[in-house]
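Input.
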Amino acid sequence: MKKLKLVMIGNGMAGVRTLEELLKLSNELYDITVFGAEPHTNYNRILLSPVLAGEQTFDEIVLNDLDWYLDNSIKLLLNRKVVEIDRVKRRVIADDGTEAEYDRLLIATGSTPFILPIPGNALQGVIGYRDIADTQAMINTAKTHKHAVVIGGGLLGLEAANGLMLRGMHVTVVHIGEWLLERQLDKTSGQLLQTALEARGLHFRLSEQTQALHDAGNGRVGSVEFKNGDIIPADLVVMAAGIRPSTELAEKSGIPCHRGILVNDTLQTYDPRIYAIGECASHRGTAYGLVAPLFEQAKVCANHLAQLGFATYKGSVTSTKLKVTGIDLFSAGDFMGGEGTETITLSDPIGGVYKKLVIKDDVLVGACLYGDTADGGWYFRQIRENHDIDEIRDHLMFGDASFMEQAIGDAGHSGREAS
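Output.
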């Protein structure tokens, strides 16, 4: 039987995981061609921050080396950015003129950093934080320059700031929000994190808007100006103020997009021969940026590409377990609380521990943990499975271990009664 042609645009974690899942189900169905815009094989973007911090090398974060592609007969075309999808002739065309025909096409173009539309954003020394090239640029700059400004107080911004500080730079984090990591933490835990990071040497400007970046006189950024008129020195400006799904290619080829490439529960676009997965895809109004949902999508997408066709993706309930410069954080569900909810908190500032649980109608609907996240997974299961917590409410704050102790105690007690 003649093999079908599968072309994948993008060589990142979500796309390659889809290929791995597909090869488990069927390695005879397709001739596979992969276009990667970068000059590298697939690597773990989540571990860019340890590379920046000097804790790991790039070679250590590579997920699939060249041999993996060769062993699986995958044609890998690196350093080639696809610029056109011809849906009539079913082919893709790269910026160097390379063409590849497809029977099925998988778009896994990921996302791009949001660069603030302000004066000076094209100066030398102003970069996003997305790939190994950005990471290397930061490492190189830290050797020759002193002042860094990171715009964005989310996870990516804090990791960039920490890595640059460890490499000897004076780092200021600028954040438009009231507290750090406002999507993952509530105000109390966000302030605890800020205090801990300040003690390590980072500087913060919260509730601040960047108005302009100024030239040092040599075409390189030299300072940052805020809306209130303050100006601080900056030899390096890292934009970590969010990402945007990479949809330009799909839009140009007439595939409907809205905050991502629109996909159904089988990860197919409006053109059923074309699939989209990962950060570039919008499923039921959500574009996911976390690894767990992307890997769930990969399984479903592979199931359909393998022509099994019984798996569906209904969306993901997400939790966030982070380690920011050695500080453990966890959040899941509706951890902010609100009308109709009840909140239980435990605060131990001296021990560096804060826990907040949000309950609605005797069901745990949210959790935010700072400093001690050992029970994060257990709380996440309670949230995801809608367990009634009425009978265990008094023990809830003490997590999974308290129920084990209670069960052992109950068993011992009933044993004594029996004797």
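The longest helix spans residues 399-418.
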